[in-house]
Amino acid sequence: MNIPLRLRLFFPVMAVVVTVALLITVWSINRSINSLNQQLTNILLLEVQTITKMFEREHSLKHEKVSTNLSMASMLFHSSPVGLHRTPIRVEAENQESGVVHSTNLQPLYRDGISLWESSRFVDSIEYATGASATIFQLIDSGLVRVSTSIRKRSGERATGTYIPNRSPVTGAILSGESYYGRAFVVNEWYTTAYEPVMIDGDIIGALYTGEKEKDMSELGEILSRLTIGTSGYPFVFDKEGVLLIHPYREGEEWNSEAFGEKISGSDEGVITLRRGGDREVIAYRYFDPFELYIAASAMSNIENRDMIRGAVTGAILVSIVAISALLLLLYRFTTDRLYRYLNALERSEEKLASARDALKQSEKLAHMGQVSAGIAHELNNPLGVITMYSNIILDELPEGSDIEDDIKLIAAQAERCKKIVGGLLNFARKSRVKPQSTDIVRFLHESINNVVVPDNIEVSVRSEESTEMAAIDREQMMQVFTNIMKNGIEAMTDGGRLTITVSGKEESVVISIADTGKGIEPENMEKLFTPFFTTKRVGKGTGLGLALVYGVVKMHKGKIDVRSNSDRESAPTGTEFIITLPRKGEESDDTDI
Ligand code: ADP
Ligand code: MG
């Protein structure tokens, strides 16, 4: 297949560029997916943090509320006279933690003349007014026993008779006359609580309590249900056992035993990724100690990222298409251009090398030619002389009007022609020895012109800046050189013209230019000019040995010969110029290497 060099260069370069661009595209898409995932994770973490803040606020609000309630309850409690009955009663006291029951004596507490042990009116009115549970405790041997309470046991009955054991921090605080604020496990749930000692005549006889259930899940759940994250995300809450306390649709169920058991349980904060089918769920979570539960936020990263990834991919593809096209265009213009020029230059220098090789071959051929022709010419000269001589004798002796006269004449003429060729060959062959003599080239050229027949329609001129230009030449041989070139010029100007000979002196050499205004040399003949027997002239006219001899002689003089010619009438005036450069100092040589 014939693909232009430029395209052949372009294809691999294009392949490389396209591959690189595709790799960059894939890489950048991957990067944006990663950064989107990171972003989603950050959003989820932020969500968890926000909910935690909300829970903390809820927690501290509870505290405030409970302590306000306690002040109010205390005020109300002491607004009526209180006192202890002298006769103790027997009560069954139940440890609220262990459930163990024992009998003990208790001096019942009276308020406004009513035994609190028998009436829960006061605590109920507190609960009614504040929404907080309320209890009145009395000290017994093993702790603080509830004598009147609005708190109910799991069974539904009031928790009267249950007691907080002595080793509880609550009992400790009350016994030393201090109030206690904090979390407390009341009967069966955690409460945000406040306790205050109750004193009669300077003695601590019990405590007043108000409290609220620590976490009101239904209220928090409602707030959380309004929070959504992206299109697929939501917050949720689960306890230390992995049971979902707040969840959009799975409340009360076990959340995800695998994820909880292996990944979350025990760690306070983190992000996990779960794969379910084709979905990738990212979950951020944090343990909230005051409520003893985990706050979590989850979202499907593949769903959340889908649109953004689609956008990123389209964008990346568009950008890379534009970039690839621009790059390819630039590359095509510049890189391949340069490469192209470089390879072209390489090709040209190879051509030059080839032509130098050709020239070498040429001179080898000529040298060989010289030796061969010397032999042949020598051998042919004598027989040719005999043929010429005898055909002339026969012609002389032929009777008038003989019918072989024309034939004999033809033999004599052709033999004559052979002699001419042989003469040329001998000239060519003999020129392997140079006898240089210092010569004024300007004068010598004038002499050469005299040896050439110049038709009337041709004008010959010799131009020189200096009147003499000296160089050492073998005069006999150089005469052949100049006359041959002049004759060729004249023969090329069949319709007349100008033959201009110019001599210019250089320091080391003399340059002789012989230019005609003839028909010029066809480009395809330029390289054959100096080859022996190359001629474009008709048979009998040219021998093709003239320029071969010229070349040989100039080389023998360590000179140089150049030809410039134009045969194209359309482009410029036609004509040919031979430029011979001869060193001024000639040296005697018998060099056969022409
Ligand atoms: P010949 O003159 O016998 O043909 P040459 O070796 O002298 O042989 O020249 C070889 C050929 O070179 C000629 O036949 C001719 O085609 C061409 N040539 C040489 N000199 C000129 C010139 N000045 N103008 C045009 N053609 C030339
Ligand atoms: Mg000639």
How would you characterize this protein structure?
With 594 residues, the chain is α+β, with helices and mostly antiparallel strands. The chain has helices at residues 5-78, 121-130, 169-175, 217-225, 257-264, 301-333, 335-397, 405-430, 441-450, 475-492, 546-556, and strands at residues 82-84, 89-95, 101-106, 109-111, 114-115, 133-140, 143-149, 162-165, 180-186, 189-200, 203-213, 234-239, 244-246, 269-276, 279-288, 293-300, 437-440, 458-464, 470-473, 497-505, 509-516, 560-566, 575-583. The protein has 4 domains: 17-69 and 305-355, no CATH class; 81-213, Beta-Lactamase (2-Layer Sandwich), CATH 3.30.450; 218-302, PAS domain (Beta-Lactamase, 2-Layer Sandwich); 437-583, 2-Layer Sandwich (Heat Shock Protein 90), CATH 3.30.565. The strands form 5 sheets. The protein has an 8-stranded mixed sheet with strand order 3-2-8-7-6-11-10-9, with helices on both faces. The protein has a 5-stranded antiparallel sheet with strand order 13-12-16-15-14, with helices on both faces. β22 (560-566) and β23 (575-583) form a beta hairpin. The longest helix is centred in the first third of the chain and has 74 residues, at 5-78. Residues 590-594 have low confidence and may be disordered. Bound molecules: adenosine-5'-diphosphate and magnesium ion (MG). The site of adenosine-5'-diphosphate has 19 residues, from α10 and α11.
Task: Summarize the topology.
Elements: H1 5-78, E1 82-84, E2 89-95, E3 101-106, E4 109-111, E5 114-115, H2 121-130, E6 133-140, E7 143-149, E8 162-165, H3 169-175, E9 180-186, E10 189-200, E11 203-213, H4 217-225, E12 234-239, E13 244-246, H5 257-264, E14 269-276, E15 279-288, E16 293-300, H6 301-333, H7 335-397, H8 405-430, E17 437-440, H9 441-450, E18 458-464, E19 470-473, H10 475-492, E20 497-505, E21 509-516, H11 546-556, E22 560-566, E23 575-583
Parallel strand pairs: 2-8, 18-20
Antiparallel strand pairs: 1-4, 2-3, 4-5, 6-7, 6-11, 7-8, 9-10, 10-11, 12-13, 12-16, 14-15, 15-16, 17-19, 20-21, 21-23, 22-23
